[in-house]
Design goal:
- The structure holds 2 protein chains of 2 kinds.
- Chain A is of the alpha/beta class.
- The mean pLDDT of chain A is 89.
- In chain B, β1, α3 and β2 form a beta-alpha-beta unit.
- Classes of the chains: A alpha/beta, B mainly alpha.
- Bound molecules: adenosine-5'-diphosphate and magnesium ion.
- The site of magnesium ion (MG) has 5 residues of chain A, from α1.
- The site of magnesium ion has 5 residues of chain A, from α1.
């Protein structure tokens, strides 16, 4: 396991020896990586690699994991501590919206849950609607939206309170190319605002295009971490794309799942 | 703590918004109960308005005469097939005062007092004086009791009493009292003639093999002549004292009051299960994990649902009782404070039960299946469909009855609507305490299941 940075300031999030098992299935085996402030960090791996499980542990959905998490160098226990969860925004893999409420009402409700009130909430909702490109449709019920619009709203809800760390789990699943571009633009904008983002995907083009650094996951392990070109160097095929790097490192194709 | 409350309120507000957005659901949620209360109310009225439905009527007594005649009379009452005589022969005797308490508490509806001098007047060839303390709405039971008294008197006084009774019957039918002697003469003549007829029949060997002299069911006369039933009821001279809350509406019958609150409670359970099931839907829809990852307290979703269900339930009760008031003369607003307190206890208990089902079940189908079964069982056992309190149950069945939410809800509502008790009455306080007990136990269990299943104790 190589850790490229030996920084004097601690990483925003440190994941150390993270292990998790479901009843029958071992999902994570000693996962290690660090995320620096302001970067878009990719978790790339086929279906079943353990990306969602990793996100769930970091998000505080799963509590009984092995290993440790640290946030800016100090112990991070999001499952137990609601104060720790305050640092996080989560965009779940499956859409999590009230279809019978409007976009604005969804934002209002989830904004209330993360502690936004009155004027702050109004402003946050307005900029979220702009980010999602839903200003015009803000007062229509979500069930009348296209898949792409729902995805954008899903993202807008997760970042509503400007969290220090935004966790995105396969946000482009089932999205048409146009909406995908819109989503990428939104993420670029969040990066420019200085947000730190974890982005999981099984599309290597997305990881290549969007992420500053990438952790390649397979069968519950992180196999390599680095920028796209560092990963290619590690695999001994400089300049190769991530698809070939993955094949070289695992002996399998990304699409195998 | 305050953020738990604030989040719960946010959740409840959101749920109310969602609930009222589903127009069909709202209409069903409110109209269905009304429809059912209507149907059950009328069916009960018809079913129990005639004699078919009831087995035995409970008659409490106190024997102040304690003569051989009164013992005989009671022994015969004890075997009468229309009566269930209380206290049992091996139970301690009651007094006038304890019986009045029972009437007041709704534990008894007819109490017979055999005053001193009963035996003496029978021996002296007179119809004995009897006193009855009663709940005047229980006409049906009253008729069964009249029949039982008649049988008992025959047994205690022998055939001689038949002349006395015949005389009284004919007086009630309109003959002057002064003709008493003439009437008795006719009666004795009649008896003689009848005996002659039987002799003749015996000689002709046409007499039926067994004597069948039990009380024949009275034929309802269709002519415009005297009403046989009311004569029967009046045959035994009983001095009635009515024990009813003065404000009870005249039109209200026991069974109607029972139906309105019974079906109300049952529909409330169905409605609240539906509300609670939104918890499961949220998990299936993935919106629940969004709360779990937010900094808001996780239990707030459970309590938010609780609050939401409570509000919807209260609205349903308001509509139902307004309907009962309009259509069935249940005077719901006579004691609004008691109505509010009782309804709150019922709502909290039923809502907690709904939350328990929702937190326990892993799918909506499971929740619906189990809750339908439990609700129907509780409704039947607890007396929401049928006044179970009027049936003499073996101990085990009685225990089952008493362990339902429905039973205590019905007891409290009947205490209010029928007996006109205030919420401070011990019977009411006990019912509400039991309901709150149910609520606490169900809530604790619901929180336990919820935390186990939803709040990440194990992977969702
Ligand atoms: N709720 C669950 N119960 C049991 N096994 C699970 C559950 N969720 C995921 N798994 C298993 O854990 C492993 C990792 O899954 P996941 O983290 O969802 O991978 P990914 O998100 O990369 O597709 C897979 O083998 C998957 O089958
Ligand atoms: Mg996944």
């Amino acid at each position: 396991m190589t850790t490229p940075t030996v920084a004097s300031t601690p990483a925003l999030l440190t994941v150390k020896n993270l292990s998790f098992r479901y009843k029958q299935q071992v999902a994570l085996r000693e996962v290690n990586f660090e995320i620096d402030s302001g970067e878009i960090f990719g978790l790339l791996g086929p279906n079943g690699a353990g990306k969602t499980t990793t996100i769930s542990c970091v998000a505080g959905l799963l509590g009984q994991y092995g290993g440790e998490l640290a946030f800016r160098g100090s112990s991070f226990r999001p499952f137990e501590s609601s104060g720790d969860r305050q640092h996080l925004g989560v965009v779940p893999q499956d859409l999590a919206l009230y279809e019978d409420l409007t976009a604005r009402e969804n934002l209002e409700f989830f904004g209330g849950l993360v502690g936004l009130r009155a004027g702050d909430l109004g402003q946050a909702i307005q900029s979220a609607l702009i980010l999602a490109g839903l200003v015009e449709r803000a007062d229509d019920r979500v069930k009348t939206y296209s898949g792409g619009m729902k995805r954008r709203l899903n993202l807008a809800i997760g970042q509503l309170h400007r969290p220090d760390l935004l966790l995105l789990d396969e946000p482009t699943a089932g999205v048409d190319p146009q909406s995908r571009n819109h989503l990428f633009e939104a993420l670029e904008r969040l990066r420019q605002e200085g947000r730190t983002i974890v982005y999981t995907t099984h599309y290597m083009e997305e990881a290549q295009r969007l992420c500053d650094r990438i952790a390649i996951m397979d069968r519950g392990r992180v196999i390599a971490v680095g920028t796209a070109s560092q990963l290619a160097d590690q695999a001994g095929i400089p300049g190769a794309d991530l698809e070939r790097v993955f094949l070289e490192l695992t002996g399998r194709s990304l699409r195998d799942g | 703590m305050s953020s738990l409350l604030a989040t719960s309120i946010q959740v409840a507000k959101k749920d109310l918004r969602l609930y009222f957005r589903d127009r069909t659901g709202v209409i069903l949620g409110f109209l269905l109960p009304i429809g059912l209360v209507g149907v059950f109310g009328f069916v009960n009225k018809m079913a129990f308005g005639s004699e078919g439905g009831l087995s035995r009527s409970t008659l409490w007594y106190v024997d102040e005469d304690e003569s051989e005649k009164s013992q005989q009379f009671l022994a015969s009452l004890r075997t009468a097939n229309t009566l269930r005589l209380r206290p049992r022969s091996d139970d301690p005797a009651e007094t006038r005062e304890t019986l009045e308490d029972k009437l007041h508490d709704g534990e008894a509806h007819h109490c017979l007092i055999i005053p001193a001098g009963f035996g003496a007047s029978l021996a002296g060839g007179k119809l004995p004086p009897l006193q009855m303390l009663r709940d005047p709405g229980r006409d049906l039971e009253g008729q069964m009791i009249s029949i039982g008294l008649l049988q008992g008197l025959f047994a205690a006084a022998g055939t001689d009493s038949s002349h006395l009774l015949t005389a009284r019957a004919l007086q009630l039918a309109g003959l002057p009292e002064a003709w008493n002697d003439r009437i008795q003469q006719v009666s004795r003549g009649f008896q003689t003639s009848v005996e002659l007829l039987f002799q003749e029949a015996e000689e002709a060997d046409r007499r039926p093999p067994s004597q069948n002299q039990g009380a024949e069911p009275p034929e309802q006369s269709t002519s415009s002549g005297p009403d046989f039933l009311s004569i029967m009821n009046g045959l035994v001279p009983v001095d009635y004292t009515d024990f009813a809350p003065p404000e009870r509406p005249k039109m209200l019958s026991y069974f109607l009051a029972q139906s309105v609150s019974g079906i109300g409670v049952m529909m409330l359970m169905f409605g609240l299960i539906a509300c609670a099931s939104m918890l499961i839907k949220e998990r299936e829809d993935g919106t629940l994990p969004r709360l779990m990852v937010s900094p808001a307290p996780r239990d707030a979703y459970l309590w938010g649902k609780f609050l939401f269900a409570l509000i919807i339930g209260a609205a349903q009760l308001v509509v139902l009782f307004a309907f009962g008031n309009l259509v069935f003369d249940v005077d719901v607003l006579r004691d609004p404070i008691t109505l509010g307190v009782v309804s709150l206890a019922v709502l909290v208990a039923v809502t907690a039960f709904g939350m328990l089902v929702a937190a326990w079940a892993s799918t909506i189908k499971q929740a619906e299946g189990v809750s339908t079964l439990v609700i129907l069982t509780m409704s039947a056992l607890g007396g929401a469909w049928y006044p179970i309190q009027t049936i003499d149950l073996p101990p085990l069945a009685s225990l089952a009855t008493h362990s339902t939410i429905t039973y205590w809800a019905m007891t409290a509502y009947q205490g209010l609507f029928w007996h006109g008790k205030p919420w401070t009455d011990p019977v009411m306080l006990r019912s509400m305490a039991v309901l709150l007990g149910f609520a606490v136990v169900a809530s604790i269990a619901a929180v336990w299941f919820y935390r186990r299943r939803y709040a990440g104790r194990r992977p969702a």
